[in-house]
Amino acid sequence: MRRIVNFNTKWAFTKEAAEVPSSMPTKWNLVNLPHSWNAIDGQDGGNDYYRGTCYYAKTLEKAELPEADQYYLELHGANSSADVYVNGKHLAHHDGGYSTWRVNITDVLVDYNLFVITVDNAENTSVYPQMADFTFYGGLYRDVNIICVSESHFDLDYFGGPGLKVTPEISGNVAKVEIECYLTGLKPGQSLHYIIRDKEGNVTAETKSSSTKATLEIPNVHLWHGRRDPYLYTAEITLMNGEAILDNISSRFGCRSFQIDPDRGFLLNGEEYPLRGVSRHQDRWGVGNALLPEHHREDMDLICEMGATTIRLAHYQHDQYFYDLCDEGGMVVWAEIPYISKHMTGGRENTISQMKELIIQNYNHPSIVVWGLSNEITMSGEEDADLIENHRILNNLAHELDKTRLTVIACLSMCHIDSEYVHIPDAVSYNHYFGWYGGDTSMNGPWFDSFHEKYPDTPIGCSEYGCEALNWHTSTPMQGDYTEEYQAYYHEELIKQLFSRKYLWATHVWNMFDFGADARNEGGENGQNHKGLVTFDRKYKKDSFYAYKAWLSDEPFVHICGKRYVDRVEDTTKITVYSNQPEVELFANGVSLGKKAAPDHFFYFEVPNAGETVLEAVAGELRDNSRIRKVELFNEAYRLKEKGAVLNWFDITAPEGYFSLNDKMSDIMASPEGKRVIDSMMKNLGESKPAGMEMNEGMMKMMGGFTVLRLTNLMGTAGVKMTKEELLDLNAELNKIQKP
Questions:
Q1: Choice among 376, 485, 492, 522 that is catalytic
Q2: For the chain, what percentages of helix, strand and coil (3-state, to nearest 5) are there?
Q3: Given phi > 0 = left and psi -120 to 50 = alpha, else beta, which region is 438?
Q4: Which of 288, 324, 460, 670 has the most CB atoms less than 10 A away?
């Protein structure tokens, strides 16, 4: 019988070793797994987190293990390359930091054993990812086990897979379920017992066979139907030698059919089932990627509370436990490999091996419907022949390994819709940030309409959209101010534009949670991307979270926005309430300000602001409270002050009726004098532009939505910098140009 022994505790760890030790180190630090050495320095900014080779060591007496014929070391995640040594012998090397892999250690085990695992997250030219807007946390950040099995056992060497492959096919009210297994050391006379159990554990079908493939039927099948009814069956296979059990494995699965229709969007079991949800990065504040089960459960609970029906698990393979939670919770999932941002000519084999691991290890999860081939891979252009060939190889590989699911890519916003690579997969989605990284919010819906009109047979979706918000506040939100109020406004606009277009096969907010990106220097809190609907520590749901809850959740609620924005200078202030109820009444110090209906779930009230005001929103039996306070001067604690910023927007002279660095590029360029100044600025910056910022029509249109200051700040993060004096001189020139 198979036994799994957890191998997480009391590892010695160091960044300082130069070679594999021959005995257990006594001066290394003791850690328990999961562990990441970048849990702090990967989140504090500066792009200086440690990237290199670190060492883990642990001893084991063989007598501590159950008696078995074969022993495998199983690693669920070692980022990003790793080597395994047992008793000084090198046994395996693995490239790819997000998948499960195993090493047969049987022949090297002695009575007393020394395990050493080296893990390396240093830069290289062959292992993905190498360029992306998130931290590449190093470490043994998921579970490590020892699997003990008989000589004859279900395969443990096939790309980290579970040893069985379950493929349901629905015909009427019957499911034909093909179960295929992979075996090592099979001997004559041994047999297999196949069983399917329902959710309650009752046997619904079974057969005995000597074949590694069997087809069983489930009459009156109970379908897996997303959030509405995520019903799961279990497939079990037992390897027998007469009456003796040699090995057994099982996997849950769901019976469902789906289709992505270019006009109707996503269909689940023949019914239209809109996919409206979020993307998720797996890391956490102070933990990095070294998550515990309770962290994963909290993430899933928050996503479910919001009412999402889909999750894009970006930008790599996530923990098996989280895929299990998606199955149980009825989430429709986009799973992808970390082929991202920068195509590397030496990385093709790594994209292939990571795709094989992703599909083989996750084939049985009913939640997964698409395999993602790449994300924003055309940063340096989309005409690279090697890049295009790599995508064709991955697309064909995905269809070869899995004939039941579709393929997809997430395209960079500037990527031309006629590009050859855009039309390789079965479906396509775009990452658009109109209204944040340029352009304005009104551009989002029409862009998708244009794509759909030109390519009516290509399913199109939105794989990323969002904007950053921290604990900054204003009554006059504007693009680029990092306030919670602008983020709420942005998402109100995007919800109305995207959710009203049925043809969009899926929409995914970027991002559900703030996440670590150590190279970032934005928003006043360096080292993070703050586009999350929930903070990095999961302690605070931003107002935009409730905007989605109002549209997507059936759980009755009412929420007053702006709870962190108490001090206000205006005599009358706007108060926004989100609710999925048809009518909301707002009270100020117990006095009703009237009832309002809002088909779009966004209720706006004008509230007198004098002294202290206690606000209460009422929707039926539901209540929510907040407060505001009249002040004479704006509370500077609410205003963004960027750490290390060359120049802050509020330090800029902006005479009434004249241009400044705080004006949009498009407005300035519309003036002949303004265009001359901007053209001169761009010429002085030279040819060294950020990767992917080729000045095509789409890029110029997007840049038009940036203020000059914001554009120069963003270019500065890519090494194209202007000094404070240069910016002030530029502002002085703009101050001379009168607005039309």
A1: 376
A2: 20, 35, 45
A3: left
A4: 288
CATH of range 273-555; options 3.30.1490.190, 2.70.50.60, 1.20.1250.20, 3.20.20.80 = 3.20.20.80
Q: Is the dihedral of CA 728, 733, 738, 740 positive or negative?
A: negative
Spatial distance between the Cα atoms of 190 and 244, rounded to a whole number of angstroms: 10
For the stretch 537-590, pLDDT in tens is: 999 999 999 999 999 999 999 999 999 999 999 999 999 999 999 999 999 999
Pick the CATH number of 567-636 from 2.40.240.20, 1.20.272.10, 2.60.40.10, 1.10.10.10: 2.60.40.10
Task: Say which CATH architecture domain 164-253 belongs to.
Answer: Sandwich (2.60)
- Residue 689 DSSP class: P
Would you kindly state where each structural domain of the chain is located, as residue ranges? 3-148, 164-253, 273-555, 567-636, 647-734
CB atoms within 10 A of CB 137: 27
User: What fold characterizes domain 3-148?
Assistant: Jelly Rolls (2.60.120)
pLDDT by residue (tens digit) across 283-299? Answer: 999 999 999 999 999 99
Query: Which of 458, 485, 460 lies closest to 472, judged by CA?
Result: 485
Per-residue buried b or exposed e for 22-40, using 16+ beta carbons within 10 Å of the residue's own CB: eeebeebeebebbbbbbbe
Which residues is 189 bridged to in the sheet? none
The dihedral sign for the CA sequence 86, 89, 90, 91: negative
Work out the pLDDT band at 640, boundaries 50, 70, 90: confident
CA pair distance 335, 356, nearest whole angstrom: 12
- How far apart (Å, rounded) are the C-alpha atoms in residues 33 and 10? 8
- Higher-confidence position of 710 and 537: 537
Q: Same CATH fold, 273-555 and 3-148?
A: no
| 376 is known as an active-site residue | yes
Residue 220 — left, alpha, or beta (φ > 0 → left; ψ -120 to 50 → alpha)? Answer: left
